[in-house]
Amino acid sequence: MPRPPRIEIAGVPLHIVQRGNNRTACFFGDTDRKFYLKCLLDYAGRHGCAIHAYVLMSNHVHLLLTPERAGAASAMLQDLGRRYVRTINDAQGRTGSLWEGRFRSNLVDSDTYFMACHRYIELNPVRAGIVVRPLDYIWSSHAHYANGRPDALVTEHDSYLRLGSTPELRRKAFVPLFQAPVEENDVRRLRTAVNRGWALGSEKFLDQMETLAGRSVRPARRGRPLKEADTEIEPSLF
Questions:
Q1: Sheet holding 104-107, edge to edge
Q2: Which of 57, 115, 124, 170 has an alpha carbon 20 to 30 Å from 234's alpha carbon atom?
Q3: What residue ranges define each of the domains in the chain, with the CATH number in brackets?
Q4: What is the pLDDT along the chain (238 residues), one digit of tens a residue?
């Protein structure tokens, strides 16, 4: 049975995960990561996608963004994928697909889960055991927020701006959020939501999204209960 189309709603944040085909690498070195970020900056601007947080892992990417219109994120990733894969295939002497067929995404409630999703993304390298602190991993948006290092790719979301009235106050409020891991229940909710394409937020938010999308954005209320294995993204996706 084919999967339903992804839901994109103008002005509503999306958490996106795109991974390498068959869990294999999508980046073969820092030059690849730099080129990917260059492409992302280009096509995000062309298609009207505000990138709030990101992390580039060896075999997958997390993005937290807001599209200015429905379909903008899909168009951005499609154009980015064509350019990036063609270039990497030429450089690596390889052919065929680099990414899996479909990226995964879900709507995120700005009022309840935006900052949890932001933390989840930038703490990815810590959960993977690559670094001890998120600031030690250079291929993410974290330094922009925690260290004041300007990142042309990043658009600060209102949820972040509300942390303080000045950049200094916002940084002081932001950094302590990363001194502890994301709560395990939130990790499970975030992974399940993006894996299943379910919106993540309050009941009011879910009702609003269903009205705008014209379809369900949450788990079915009846039927076979989901097993633990059904709710988790593959272990290679942190």
A1: 49-56, 60-67, 14-19, 104-107
A2: 115
A3: 14-231 (3.30.70.1290)
A4: 456 678 999 999 999 999 998 888 999 999 999 999 999 999 999 999 999 999 999 999 999 999 999 999 999 999 999 999 999 999 888 877 888 878 999 999 999 999 999 999 999 999 999 999 999 999 999 999 999 999 999 999 999 999 999 999 999 999 999 999 999 999 999 999 999 999 999 999 999 999 999 999 998 875 554 444 343 333 334 4
